[in-house]
Design a protein that fits this description.
The complex is a heterodimer. Chain A contains five helices and no strands. Chain A is mostly helical. The mean pLDDT of chain A is about 90. The chains are: A mainly alpha, B mainly alpha. The interface between A and B is large, with 43 and 39 residues.
Chain lengths: ~130, ~130
């Protein structure tokens, strides 16, 4: 195939690093996983309307809910940060873009880890 | 300045506001908007679980949820979740190569609008009755 890039573009070497395909697939796989998880979580959230602290705590502590909640929060945050990365890439540029993408990823990991530890603590009685 | 370095002035697409809104474009924009809202909502969900470790923190957290603004946020979260879920499934079909005909894109678009609105209203009614 003919390389249609300018000599400068070729010298800079900025092109596909094959990361895009992985990003695309990760977004789709997490999307498929989130279909049952979001349906389950939305129903649970509605059913917990008006529930007091003890009820919510007991709900989180049941083993099935622990697994489902960790999956929902973990996969949800991962899917969310993949999507937000694209949003930053579309509307911002330069250093600001890089800072916001890094910040988004850091926040997702921070809140995800915090939530998982909280769920385990509630479930195993810390 | 070398030829390669000179900025290229390619024709730009006209601004969005010159277009009449169409179902397909409005739903596309709404997909991104609800996606951003849900990403922030995921942080909020994580915060909810973290607050559930302490009764004091939970009371503070719940006092916002039960306020008018809190109800609006949670109700909005439900709509965003149902809409992004339904339209996301529509996107997955497109990714698999189905439903690209204009007629099909409009039909699936209206189905997404209908299902997400019904799911939202049902969840609001059930939720408000339980409070």
């Amino acid at each position: 195939m003919t390389d249609r890039r300018t000599p400068l573009a070729r010298a800079r070497g900025l092109g596909s690093a094959k990361e895009g395909v992985h990003h695309w697939w990760a977004q789709r796989l997490t999307a498929i996983a989130l279909i049952p998880l979001v349906v389950w979580f939305a129903i649970s959230l509605v059913m917990l309307s008006g529930a007091d602290y003890q009820v919510v705590r007991a709900w989180i502590a049941s083993p099935l809910v622990m697994v489902m909640l960790i999956l929902t929060i973990g996969i949800g945050l991962h899917h969310g940060q993949l999507g937000l990365q694209v949003v930053w890439e579309d509307y911002t540029e330069g250093a600001f873009r890089v800072v916001m993408i890094v910040l988004t990823k850091f926040l997702a990991v921070l809140f995800g880890l915090g939530a998982i530890i909280a769920i385990l603590r509630i479930g195993f009685g810390g | 300045m070398s030829v390669a370095n000179r900025p290229v002035h390619r024709p730009l697409s006209p601004h969005l506001q010159v277009y009449r809104p169409q179902l397909t474009s409005v739903l596309s924009i709404l997909h991104r908007a609800t996606g951003v809202a849900l990403a922030v909502g995921a942080l909020y969900l994580a915060l909810w679980v973290i607050c559930a470790t302490s009764p004091r923190a939970y009371v503070t957290f719940q006092s916002f949820n039960t306020s008018l603004l809190g109800r609006f946020v949670l109700g909005g979260w439900l709509f965003s979740a149902f809409y992004h879920l339904c339209n996301g499934i529509r996107h997955l079909f497109w990714d698999a190569g189905y439903g690209f005909e204009l007629k099909d894109a409009y039909r699936s678009g209206w189905i997404v609008v209908g299902v997400s609105l019904v799911a939202t209203i049902v969840s609001w009614i059930v939720g408000l009755r339980l409070i």
